[in-house]
Amino acid sequence: MSWDGCWSRLGGSFVEGVEEKHITLAKKGTLLHRSLASRSIPERAAVVKLFGVLGPRYMGREGGYTRVLKLSGRRRGDAADMSVIEFVGREGEIREAKEGGVKRRGGIGEAYEQFKKVRGKGKHPGLDWLW
After folding, report:
1. Residue 5 in 3-state DSSP?
2. Which of 5, 33, 107, 125 could form a disulfide with 25 if both were Cys (CB 3.0 to 4.6 A apart)?
3. Which Pfam families has this protein been placed in (predicted)?
């Protein structure tokens, strides 16, 4: 959209959050969500691209529509770390998306079972006060 380009790392993480929210609005696709998105996007062409291209593209994906890639160089004026924002799952990606998505970790029950196994072997005797 209109956010393309190089950013400082802090600015890149801010823009990533804004873009994620806009794409979530575009996935819903109603007139209400279009008007909500157009409040914060001043360019009409960007809103059309958001609801016409990006919303349908990410319909089957739950979050994680963009990624911030860190660049090795620094900005000339203030030596800030630089980053690039790109959309996941498009042609010509800088870095390909991983197959299978994010693996979710187990809950506290599984962690407790692993802890009991380790504690039983005497590797962490100082942690008995936890359980």
Report:
1. coil
2. 33
3. Ribosomal_L17 (PF01196)
